[in-house]
Amino acid sequence: MKRSPALVPLLIVAAALVLALGPFVLPPFYVRVGQLMVYSAGLAVAWAILGGFAGYASFGHAAFIGVGAFAAGLVENQFSALAPGLLLALGLAVGGGACAVLSAAVAYPILRLRGTFFSIAMLGVCHVCAEVNNNVDFFQGSMGINFPPLAPASMDPADFFFWLYLAAGTIVMLIAWLIWRSRFGAGLLSIREDEDTARMLGVPTERYKRLAFVISAVLTGLLGVIYAHALGYITTDSVYRDDTNLNLIVFSLLGGMGTLFGPVIGAFLLVFITQVILGRLLDFHLFATGLLLVLLVLGAPGGVLGVVRGWRVRRRAATAPAE
Amino acid sequence: MSAAPILQVDGLSKSFRGLRAISEVSFAIEAGSITSIIGPNGAGKSTLFNLITGYLAPTAGDVRFRDRRITGMATNRIAELGVARAFQIARPFRDLSVFENVRIGALFGKAGSRDVEATTRRGMELAAIAHLADQPANTLTVGQLRHLEVARAIATRADLLLADEPCAGLNPTETAAMIEVLRRIRASGVTIVLVEHDMPSVMEVSDRLLVLDAGAMIADGPPHEVAGDPRVIAAYLGSPDD
Fold it and tell me: Is A202 an interface residue toward B (CB < 8 Å)?
């Protein structure tokens, strides 16, 4: 597992550049699938900074997609005269800021809960946000918000948003990598493994958990802002989605919980399975996701990367000389 | 010359809903010593460690480390000052390798600058587990896990190590190895406080014994004196009057 440190970010950027060629060679349907893949991968990695690294599996991260999207939309509509690029920058700043404030506010009480209790409390946070968003007129959740078009006239919006997601996803991935290899990342890992022992070894567990939570929430919110622009019009139901809440967990489980690349692999795989292989079967993908989740938890709790690692260990054991 | 004690406990008490687990315990630990705290099961030894390391807040009393009041401080803050603890039931980070486990201690622990790699290696060497560096922690034996526990605690560059029954459940060979490790750690300048049941190892390694019974301190002194103390014998075996 010892790689030279510069290799990973190079690999990430190289992979992103290769993916960026997608819209030039793929038919439009696959560009849309690609959009969803890259968006999902970004979300999965943002989720994993808290859920995978620190072991606090949130079941309500769609809250930050929704809060980010609505905060951005409400403010952007006040400044619709701005150039599209500036408007997006404003939306990202406001959406990210709103998620930072919300996550910092709920972090203190909610991160005292562990395991399933934390997960379920996050689901509660998501539903409370959705209800408030939907029922307080000011937020226009039930009526919906329009987002100004962003894509330049010369470009297909599908291609444009594919690249935008890709750029955002790459940045999220690089941030996750920076955290992964830092002292902060090692601290989060020790929290996942045994929080009490971590604290005893001097890991400032409370501060680290809160920081991971806020970073994860803000990155999720930023992706939510882009998602809202890609949709062009959102209501409460289109952003506060429980299937998103579920998928974020499945991505990590499928690819490999607590790894750097697992969530990306999981997101690509699951989107491919549900959109391409099962694409014609409409709502069947929810059934498939549920079934996959059960099978994973029972059969391969380490996900794809866990299975690969198991093979490697077994092969090494088989080739090693018997003692 | 009498140097200031590294750890000073004054009138420490802890009640759990009226049950007195620790009752007005006072003692001072001299820097560079190995002190063992012994006592029958339920005497409050582990509670005492929990109070010192900040896991529990005392009902009354004071704990001072290097003349600084640490009573009720957060556990990780106490660790930053230089107090480490090795648990009785080893609590390794199971999915990590031995090296990675010890590295967490080296990355955190006592505040101040450090060479993480060198500290990690030194911790593993002191605890005699350098040869296990790449093994996943969940493949270690009970004895090896105890060494890992100690290595990780030492890697925090602590000045005071609280070791909770490091020899419990170990066979004689493993016990001898652990005692050797504790001696080496002390020789490297770390003060050690042990909670231990294994009397032969206690007698062999300790400079001083403290005896707890039912939450109160009943004896304090050099091992051979304390072991012959009638109150201590009564606490362990019961007195003829009972």
Answer: yes
Question: In whole angstroms, how far apart are CA A305 and each of A5, A30, A37, A188, A268?
Answer: 20, 25, 18, 20, 14
Supply the CATH number for residue B193's domain: 3.40.50.300
Identify which of A41, A60, A69, A135 has the alpha carbon closest to the alpha carbon of residue A103.
A60
What integer is the mean pLDDT of A266-289? 80
B197 touches chain A (CB under 8 A): no
Confidence of residue A322 (pLDDT cuts 50, 70, 90): very low
Q: Up-side HSE of residue A155: CA atoms within 13 Å toward CB?
A: 14
Residues of the domain holding B123: 7-237
Locate the chain A residue with the closest alpha carbon to B91.
A197
What's the rounded Cα separation, in Å, for the pair B47 and B39? 12
What would the pLDDT profile of B115-142 be if each residue is shown by its tens digit? 889 999 999 999 989 899 898 988 888 8
Tell me if B42 is assigned to some domain: yes
Q: pTM for this structure?
A: 0.89
Q: Is residue B204 in a domain? A: yes
Domains of chain B: total: 1
- Smallest Cβ–Cβ distance between A187 and the set B91, B94, B108 belongs to B108
Residue B44 inside a domain? The answer is yes
C-beta neighbour count of B180 within 10 angstroms? 12
Beta pairing partners, B217: B212
The pLDDT of residue A85 is above 50: yes
Q: Within a domain: residue B37?
A: yes
CA A130 to chain B, closest CA, distance in angstroms equals: 36
